[in-house]
Structure formats: C-alpha cells, structure tokens
Amino acid sequence: MSRVRLAAVGQARSGDKGDLANVALFAPTEALYEVFKREVTPQRVKRLFGRFVKGTVDRYEVPNVRALNFVLHEALDGGAARSLRSDPLGKSYGSLLLRMEIDIDDNLLRQAPPQLHPPE
Amino acid sequence: MRSVRVGAGQGFYGDTPDGALDVARNGDVSYICFDALAELTMAILQKDRMRNPEGGYTRDLPSFMRLLLPIAREQGIKLITNAGGMNPQGAAAAVRSVARDLGMDDLRVGVVSGDDITTRLDDLRSGGTTLAHLDTGASIDPVRDRVVFAVAYLGAQPIVDALQREADVIVTGRVADASLFVAPMVHELGWAWDDWDKLAAGVVLGHLMECSGQATGGNFSGDWWNIPDLDRVGYPICEVYDDASALISKPPGSGGWVSVDTVKQQLLYEVLDPRSYMNPDVVADFTSVELLAAGHNMVEVAHVRGRPRPDTLKVIAGYLDGWMGTAMIGYSWPDAPAKARRAAELIEKLATRSGLEPLEQLVELVGVDSLHGDAAAPAADTNEVMLRVAARFASEEEAARFPRVAMPLALNGPPFIGGSGSPGGPRALLGVWPTLVERELVEPLVEVHVQAAGAAS
To answer: How far apart are CA B205 and CA B380, in angstroms?
Structure first.
C-alpha cells in the first residue's frame, strides 16, 4: 500500500452553478476507479475543502467516463457575482481535490499510467 | 443518412472571435452557435442595462458580427447567439445596423425574447409561484426588494421557429447554452419534440461545445503541456446524423486536441446530478453517454438517453448585495506571509478609524492560500506574497474609499513592499437566486420576430 496524492493518478475539472460548485474526478483505469470510489468519500472532500464549503457535499458516480462528480453546496461565497474571493468561479477547486492523499495498492499503482510532468 | 455540421463560436462574454472565424473558414459547417452568457454575465449585462436602457447585450456583439457576417454570407452559414442577454431587441437592432453598414439589407435577423420576467415576479408570486430558492428552499422575501433582474432559461423551440422563418442570424436572451446548438439539429434533422433520446444527444453535444476551447484542449487537467498551439485552438465542431449519433472534431490545421480525455472533462463541467441534466427541452442522462476515439482529433458521441422535459423552467434572479472594495500590496522575503498578515490587521484598523463599516472582509495571501485555502501546505521560506483584502460594504462610496485607507502602508507599514494599489474601482455585488417557474407561465409570452436588416422598424 502506498499513500499518493490524487494528482499522481487522476484528472479533474471544476466549475460553478450559483453558490454550488462541481468537481469531477477522473480515474485512468477501472481498477483505480474502484479505489477512488472507496477512498474519495464526500466526507473526506468536505474536510479537505474546509472553510470554502459551508454546506454539504454530494457524490455521483459516472461509470461511463470513470468519474466521480462532487457537488459542493454553499461553496462559492454566495456565487460568482457576489463573491469576495480571488477564484469566484471555483475553477481551481479541481486542483484542490487533486491534493487529497489516498491509499493505493502497489500492484494497482504500477499498472497506472506514469505521472507526467511539464518540462522545466 | 441526413446530417448537419454545427460549430462553436464563443464560450463566454470576452471570448475571441478568432475561433469562430476559423470554424467559418475551415470548419465546413452550416451553423455556428455562440454562447455568450453565464450567471455572472447576466449580472454584468444587467448592470449595463441599469446604467443605460439601450445596453444590456454583450458589447462585442457588433464587432463579432462585423467580422463574421461577410464570411457567413459567402459560405451560407447561419449564426445563432444568446448575446442578447438582458436586451435581445437592442442586440438585434445592433446586428441589423451592422448588416446595413455591410450592404446586407436583405440579411434576415431573428430575435427571441420573453425570457425576462423581471417585471412579472410579483404577479407570479400572487399567482402561487413560490420563487423559493432552488437549492436551499429559502423564501425570496428577504431579498425581494433588491431583485434587479429575473430571467427564465428558454429551450430550442423559439430558435427553430426563427429558422423556419428563414432567419440568417438569430439573437436571443437567456436561451439555455446547450439549446442554442440543439435548435439547428432539430431543424435540419427533423427530430420530434418528444424524441427524448435524440434531444438528449443534442443537449450533450451542445454542452460539449458551449465552452468553446474547453472541449478541445483548453483547461485540460492531463498533460496540458503537450497540447499543441493553444494560441490558435480550434473550436469544437460536431457532425450529427439523424439517428443522433455524432462526431466531435475541430477545424483542420487548428491548434488544440480532441480526445476522449479532453471531451470527457468537458462532459461533466458545471454538471450536478449526471443522471438528470436538466434542460428546458429534455432531461439528459449523462451516465448513458458513450465516448469513443474515432480517429485523429475526432471523438464519437453515442447512445445518449433522455427522459421527458420538466414541467418547470429554471429561473435566475439577481439581487443587489452590496459593494466590494479591494486593497492589494505585495510583500517580499523574508517573512512575507507574516508581513502580509500584519498589514491586513493595520488595514482593518485604518478602515475602522476612517469610519468605514465593512459588512464582511476577506484576507487572502495570494501565493499562499487564496486558491486552496487551509489545504495548501505553508511554504517553508516564501519568496513573495500578494496581500489581497476584499471587503463588502453597503455603499459604493465606502467601497471606493476602502483601498485608499491602505495606501499609507506604502511608507508606514512592514518593509519590502513590491507594488501596491487598487485593482479597479468598486464593484457592485449581485447575489444569484435560482428558482423554478411553471413553463406554461412563461412560454406563451415568448416572442419570435424575424426581420430583414433593411426593413423599416
């Protein structure tokens, strides 16, 4: 078992709808999708986002694209046109979710596509 | 099998016209659809309309049309845009004016209105529409007096109506983003208004295209550095067949990248429950969508399932919620975060002493915690921090004065500043109030007019 950040294996995109934000998390393989389903619970997402999310977190499974879609309630300081924040639209929330550390079986981790990095 | 090619021309108010021009020249499309609106945009356009009753549509609409109309006419491409925003009639008049300037007096301009229910809210309430908040269920009463606009999201039907009346350009108010794209599919392929699976396929395709380059490599969360030529990213194009199967691609030779990965990230953008994506014309099941690699820069979209449309339309109301003033100062190493935090305390005291009464205040250390908050690990030896203090006030005057109270810190505060100033003037804040209204209370008042540019108004 290894503890890795979601950024090492997953992809994400986030956006706004009123005071709701959504964050979609994509898994590279079926096996890792199962791990995501086990590890990336709404409770953990709520804790990770801390003071940014005042309401609840819902999670929806989207197996056809190996994704989990998180809906964060009361998450955008009242909504984009009302927010005092630097990121009123929650566009950076996807990368915030990718900070989460999860446990992945070493065999599964070896089968995952390698994490790539931009050239310096 | 019949088919139609539809291209995306705009993903937001502020987008470049280059993508649309590329699609028009090289995309071999019959329609280009422009999504100019978002919740934030409606608020901006309403602020414009409050300043000037002639305004309220996107200010770049005339320049887009000036660039696009000649090529659209030459290629026989019809243009569909919701850039009418809070004033579709004014927007259509502006388009007709551009067309006359270009010598296109016979250009037929359609306008769809009736989405604006601002002046009908009290009648709707007394008729039994609660206007309760869609997410929280809260009563609208505490903000009712401050509501400055309310619009219902319309579907594709009025646009199809305008197409049947041979409009070349169609300008609308708050038509749902995806519905702009659904309209030409229904018009060309003859889909029935109760063929839920096909309508749902159209909504999925429209949803994939409505954010322009975000489906073709923009904001890509994978190996973004390998995506070529994002400076001239190709905007998405779909070729849709009458059985509602479709291919998503982009103009040949353009930048960007179309793959199952770039497309699937867009599939879930701004989606809540993926099984029930609510659109005025259909409820689409995004978990039914099959995305398949179909060749170089091409993805097949298939097997979309839909369910009957809702009886209600979504409404967005905007209400005044104070004014924002912002002060910013940069601090350098050493101890940059500590300096910024101390400066924030000083600004708070200076504001209080000058009689300012913020309703709330937000301190961000840009470079440390502004985007990821407490989840961001503190850096051991931060090079630099931009302090940003944003405060909400009851009055515009207070919001304008706020950044000025921070100015003395250029000389009187912690050391080693790197730039200070106010990023723009005070900004009106608008709260967004999502709610629902029965469609039968809105749709009978939707109007479609089609008029040649040269015809007397």
So the answer is: 47
